[in-house]
Amino acid sequence: MDTTEHTKLQDVLSAKQAGWEAKATDAQKTMTTENLQAIVDTHFKDNAINLGDKAIDFTLKNALGECTNLQTTLNNGPVILTWYRGGWCPYCNLTLQFLQNSLPEFKKYGANLLALTPELPDKSLSTTEKHSLQFQVLSDVGNKVAKQYGLAFKLTDALAEVYKNGIGLHNYNGDTSSELPITATYVIDKNGIVQYAFLDADYRKRASITTIVDALKALETK
């Protein structure tokens, strides 16, 4: 699959969604729609870290037990901070592939990429190895940082049951909370201020690579 920006990330994600919708039952579609609406109804954007806000510092471990601190990373340049639901999510995997392929472009602007997931370290290690990821994948077990950023939400009861039995979500995350993060993306400048924020309740929509790069370019003129 071409995972360069010549094939737009959202085009690939939309094609994946169209394939799912062609096979999904009405009940499955309804559960997904109801869950997305439940997230929207929380008005999460009013409380989440957003454009112009100060990013909240954190320290998390990667799959090898090595600690990464946001502020320390910012001392070396801007940070692209993104959340993904887990290696079980095909939309997340596609996005991770695009981000990996775009690392050289990000590096042109001195940016580092940090990806947070609620998965246990051994699960995130599988994702890292599978996609040969060369950026930091950090385990935000219990969605602790996601909660600080206002990005954590609880699945509806109906969808939580599907994710538990069909995906094994509790095994991936090591808890029974049925909580996941909004798949948000931030570009944070060296001063810790959010200069770009992508927040969408729909996990099938992600920040475009072009927009992320444009945000990094804009930092050089400030």
Residues in helix, %: 40-55%
Overall mean pLDDT score?
93
Give the C-alpha Rg. 17 Å
Largest sheet: 7 strands, mixed
Oligomer: single chain
User: Which runs of at least 5 residues are low in confidence (pLDDT < 50)?
Assistant: none
Strand content: 15-25%
Per DSSP, the total helix count is 11
List keywords for this structure.
11 helices; 17% strand; 222 residues; alpha+beta; seven-stranded mixed β-sheet; 9 strands; two-stranded antiparallel ribbon
Question: What does this entry look like structurally?
Answer:
The protein is α+β, with helices and mostly antiparallel strands and 222 residues long. Helices cover 45% and strands 17% of the residues. The protein has eleven helices and nine strands. It has helices at residues 9-23, 26-41, 44-47, 70-74, 90-101, 103-107, 121-130, 144-148, 157-167, 169-173, 209-219; strands at 59-62, 67-69, 79-83, 112-117, 136-139, 152-154, 179-181, 185-188, 194-198. Strands 2-1-5-4-3-8-9 form a seven-stranded mixed sheet. Strands 6-7 form a two-stranded antiparallel sheet. It is globular.
